[in-house]
Design brief:
24 strands; about 600 residues; Ribosomal Protein S8, Chain: A, domain 1; eight-stranded mixed sheet; binds adenosine-5'-diphosphate; Ribosomal Protein S5, domain 2; Heat Shock Protein 90; five-stranded mixed sheet; binds magnesium ion; single chain; alpha+beta
C-alpha cells in the first residue's frame, strides 16, 4: 500500500483557513481596520466599491512596516503581537492570531503600501492568491494602505454566495460602526462608490455616537459609569422611552472589542425589564473593561465571542450599573408642577397670589442602587402607605394650598409650618374614578391611578425585601392552608423574602403552612389567594437569579394589591399617590411596561380649541 497522507500546499491551507476568518467583504474590513488600530493610527479611512466586492481600501497613518515585515505579514501565524503562549493572557490588541492577512491574501488580490516614519521610502507589495507578484519601493506618507480587490476571485462558490450589494454594504457599515464607536479619539471616514457616508471627527464617546447615529441621540442617551475592583463599565444606554420595536443599537464591547454575549445581553434587558414594553428592545453602547487574564477571546476565529472567568460577577455588576443609570435619570424632576392660579379657576381667597411656584418635594437619592441599598429608606415616601390612609380631612381644601389657618388639623394636631417652608400647590381631580388629573407647567397631567399605584407598590416591595423592612400585622386567628408538594417547596424557598414583606408564615409539615401575620398594608386582600397567584407567577418566570425572584414577588404582589380603576379617591389620597409616584425610581411606566401618565400639552389644547 502506498502512503496516502500529503501535506496541503500553503495556498490551499490558507484558503481553507480563510473560510473561517473571511466570510464576506465586511470580515476583511474588520480585520484591516483592527490592524490599523493596533498600528496606533489616528486617522483611518475606509473606501469601498460595490459594497467591498470590487474593492476595499483601508488607509492609516499608523506605525507602518519595514520591508521585511511587509513581506512577512502575509505569512500564516505571522504576528508582531504575541511571542509566547503566555502573551495570550495579557493581550490588549485587536489581533494576535496572525492569520487575517494570510487569509485575505489567499482569496483576493491585495496591494500593500507601507512606510515607517524612520524610512525614506515605502514599500509596495502585490500579493494575489498567496503569491507575491511584485515588490517595489514607493514614495508615500508614513503609514499603511491595504487595497483588497476582487474578493473571492479564486473561490467562485464563495463569491456567488455573497448577498445583494445592499445587504453586504449593511455588514460593512456595521463593522465600520463597531470599530469607530469604541475609538472616538480616532478620526474615521467611510466612502462608498465615491460617496462619503461618514466623516467622524475625534471626540468623546457621546459625540461619536451622535456622529454615527445622528444628533438626535444627544437627547436619548443615559451615561453608565461603574468602576469596581475587577470590572469597569462605561458607556451609554438609551432611555427606556427610546426602546425600539426592532433589535436596534445594541453594542457590547469587552476591552473595546465588539462581542456577542447573550447572557450579558440578558443582564441589560433584565435591568430594563419593568420599564419597556415586552416587544421592544433596549439600546446600549457599553464597554466592559476587564483584566485580559480574566477573559479568553481565543475561542472563535472572528473573535466575537469571549469567555469570562467569572461571568456571574460581570452579570451582576452590569445589571446594577444599568439600573443605576436608569434610576438616576428618572429621579431628576421631570414635571414642573404649576401654581394653581394658572388654572383660571377662581379659588377666591384660598389661593394667595404671593405663594411661590415650587417644585414638588420629591425625595431624591442620586446614589440609589436597588441592589446595594442597605440603609433605611426615607419614611416620607414608602412608610406603610395605603391609598386609603387619611392624612387630613379631604373636605378641607385649604390644607392643600398652604392656607394654614388655625382650624386646619392633622389627626387632631394643628398643622404648623415655618412661613418660609415651600408649600406644594396642586389641585387634583379624579376623572371617571380612574384617572388623576392636575395641571403642570406644560399642560395637563393625566395619571392612571391603577398603574401609578402598581408602580409605587412594586418599588416599595422591592425595597422592603432589600431592607427587611416590611411591617407585619398579626392575624387574630392563625389561618392554616395546604398546597401540593411542589408549590409547598417553592413557597418554602420564598419564605425569607416574604418575611421581609411582612408575611409571618410557619411551615407545619411538607404541605401545610399557617399564616400568623400579613403585610400591614394588605388591607382587604385574601392572603392565601395572593400567595397562590404569586407562586403561579413565580413558576412562569422561574430563574436562578435572586434579583429575578424578588422582581417577580414584587410584581405579583403589587399587581394584586394595587387599587383598580373605577375606585373613587379623595383629594388627599390623590395627593399622596402623586407624591409617591414621583418619588419612584421609574415613574413613567408600570412594572408591566404600560405608560403611567400622559401630559396633554398647551399646544394640543390650543389646537383643539381652534379646530374648525
Ligand atoms: P495579527 O493582527 O493577528 O497580528 P494580521 O494577519 O492581521 O495578524 O497582521 C499580521 C501583522 O502585520 C501584524 O501583527 C502587524 O505586525 C502587521 N500589520 C498588519 N497591518 C498593519 C498596519 N496597518 N500597520 C502596521 N502593521 C500592520
Ligand atoms: Mg490583525
Amino acid at each position: 500500500m502506498l502512503d496516502v497522507i500529503k501535506l496541503l500546499p500553503d495556498a490551499v491551507a490558507n484558503q481553507i483557513a480563510a473560510g473561517e476568518v473571511i466570510q464576506r467583504p465586511a470580515s476583511a474590513v474588520k480585520e484591516l481596520m483592527e490592524n490599523a488600530l493596533d498600528a496606533g493610527a489616528t486617522q483611518i479611512d475606509l473606501v469601498v466599491k460595490d459594497a467591498g466586492k470590487a474593492m476595499i481600501m483601508v488607509v492609516d497613518n499608523g506605525c507602518g512596516m519595514s520591508e521585511t515585515d511587509a513581506r512577512l505579514c502575509f505569512e500564516r501565524h505571522a504576528t508582531s503581537k504575541i511571542r509566547k503562549a503566555e502573551d495570550l493572557f495579557t493581550i490588549r490588541t485587536m489581533g494576535f492570531r496572525g492569520e487575517a492577512l494570510a487569509s485575505i491574501a489567499a482569496v483576493a488580490q491585495v496591494e500593500l503600501k507601507t512606510r515607517r516614519k524612520e524610512d525614506e521610502v515605502g514599500v509596495k507589495i502585490i500579493n494575489e492568491g498567496s503569491v507575491v507578484k511584485e515588490q517595489t519601493l514607493v514614495p508615500m506618507a508614513a503609514g499603511t494602505t491595504f487595497t483588497v480587490k476582487n474578493l473571492f476571485f479564486n473561490v467562485p462558490a464563495r463569491r456567488n454566495f455573497l448577498k445583494s450589494p445592499a445587504a453586504e454594504m449593511r455588514h460593512v457599515v456595521e463593522e465600520f460602526t463597531r470599530v469607530a464607536l469604541m475609538n472616538p479619539e480616532i478620526a474615521f471616514t467611510l466612502t462608498s462608490d465615491g460617496k462619503e457616508l461618514y466623516h467622524l471627527y475625534p471626540g468623546n464617546l457621546k459625540q461619536r455616537i451622535m456622529g454615527l447615529f445622528g444628533n438626535a441621540y444627544d437627547e436619548k442617551l443615559l451615561p453608565v459609569n461603574q468602576d469596581t475592583d475587577r470590572v469597569n463599565i462605561h458607556g451609554y444606554i438609551m432611555k427606556a422611552e427610546c426602546a425600539r420595536k426592532t433589535r436596534g443599537e445594541q453594542y457590547f464591547f469587552v476591552n473595546k472589542r465588539f462581542i456577542k454575549h447573550p447572557y450579558l445581553h440578558h443582564a441589560i434587558e433584565n435591568a430594563f425589564l419593568e420599564m419597556i414594553p415586552k416587544d421592544s428592545f433596549p439600546g446600549y453602547f457599553l464597554n466592559i473593561e476587564v483584566d485580559p487574564a480574566d477573559i479568553d477571546v481565543n475561542i472563535h476565529p472572528t473573535k466575537t465571542e469571549v469567555n469570562f472567568i467569572d461571568v456571574k460577577l460581570v452579570y451582576a455588576i452590569l445589571h446594577a450599573a444599568v439600573r443605576k443609570a436608569i434610576g438616576q435619570h428618572n429621579l431628576s424632576p421631570l414635571i414642573d408642577f404649576e401654581e394653581p392660579s394658572n388654572l383660571n379657576i377662581d379659588f377666591g381667597e384660598v389661593v394667595k397670589s404671593s405663594n411661590p411656584i415650587v417644585q414638588p418635594d420629591v425625595p431624591i437619592d442620586p446614589t440609589y442602587n436597588p441592589f446595594r441599598q442597605k440603609k433605611e429608606f426615607s419614611n416620607s415616601s414608602f412608610g406603610g402607605y395605603t391609598p386609603f390612609e387619611k392624612k387630613a380631612d379631604p373636605g378641607d381644601w385649604r390644607l392643600l394650598y398652604g392656607d394654614r389657618t388655625d382650624q386646619a388639623t392633622d389627626n387632631g394636631h394643628p398643622v404648623e409650618a415655618p412661613a418660609s417652608e415651600p408649600v406644594k400647590q396642586s389641585h387634583y381631580i379624579q376623572l371617571g374614578h380612574s384617572y388623576i388629573v392636575t395641571t403642570v407647567k406644560s399642560g395637563i397631567l393625566v395619571i392612571d391611578q391603577h398603574l401609578a399605584h402598581y408602580r409605587i407598590l412594586f418599588e416599595k416591595f422591592l425595597k422592603e425585601m432589600d431592607n427587611h423592612s416590611g411591617q407585619s400585622q398579626q392575624e387574630l386567628f392563625p389561618q392554616p392552608f395546604t398546597m401540593n408538594v411542589n408549590d409547598a417547596s417553592l413557597l418554602h424557598e420564598l419564605l425569607p423574602d416574604l418575611q421581609c414583606l411582612g408575611f409571618a408564615l410557619e411551615q407545619v409539615n411538607a404541605t401545610t403552612f399557617v399564616i400568623n401575620g400579613t403585610p400591614a398594608d394588605m388591607s382587604g386582600c385574601e392572603p392565601v389567594q395572593l400567595l397562590e397567584k404569586m407562586l403561579d407567577n413565580y413558576k412562569i418566570n422561574r430563574s436562578d437569579l435572586q434579583l429575578e425572584r424578588k422582581l417577580n414577588i414584587a410584581k405579583t404582589m403589587a399587581s394584586q394589591l394595587s387599587i383598580k380603576a373605577m375606585t373613587p379617591l379623595t383629594e388627599v389620597e390623590m395627593e399622596n399617590m402623586v407624591d409617591q409616584l414621583f418619588g419612584c425610581t421609574v415613574a413613567e411606566v408600570a412594572p408591566d411596561g404600560k405608560k403611567v401618565y400622559a401630559i396633554v400639552s398647551m399646544d394640543e389644547i390650543m389646537n383643539k380649541l381652534t379646530e374648525k
